[in-house]
Amino acid sequence: MRASRKLIVLGIALAGAAPFLVAGCYSDRNEPQARPASTSLGTEIDDTVVTARVKSALFADPAIKSFDLKVETRKGRVQLSGFVDSPAQVKHALGTARAVEGVTSVENGLGLKNGGTTLGNTVDDGVITTRVKSALLADPSIKSFDIAVATRSGAVQLSGYVDSQVQIDQAIALTRKVDGVNRVDTEMSIKK
Fold first, then answer.
1. Does the model's pTM come out above 0.70?
2. 89: closest CA among 120, 115, 119, 111?
3. Nearest by Cα to 111 from 91, 88, 89, 82
4. What pLDDT is recorded for position 181?
5. Domains of the chain as residue ranges with CATH
């Protein structure tokens, strides 16, 4: 059983590291590129393992509806974003994340849901999220795999760690242009 568990964790870590390995493949010599803060492959894998542990802890906790939460990790710093029902759930989610092995700090990017949702709202928000992700993916100046997108009643929350303020500004500008977006909140941080 232990060997199976280690293989699963290793598989998750390797799968999570793949986007980081591929992300550096794009290059346009005519476009100035911001230099991201460097990390080693070992750090990237460690961060992927921490992210998986935090997601598992949130998922296992019945007091937190973790399906609405996004988890990003950079050098042990965990960023939680998404939407929860109450301030008590925010506090509980932050405490749960802080208790996970490998977490050095937790950034709170959680928002409160405003009222109940209907199936129509959920579908509309899913469509908006897809449109935003597509717009970000289509722009080569944005590393869209580093940005998580959550939508609640037309309010879009962008989170994650990116290379520069220029990428944050571009992601916000593109998101505002997407049909159905009525507000953009950013919880993005620049990689250190």
1. no
2. 111
3. 82
4. 93
5. 1-20+40-113 (3.30.300), 115-192 (3.30.1340.30)
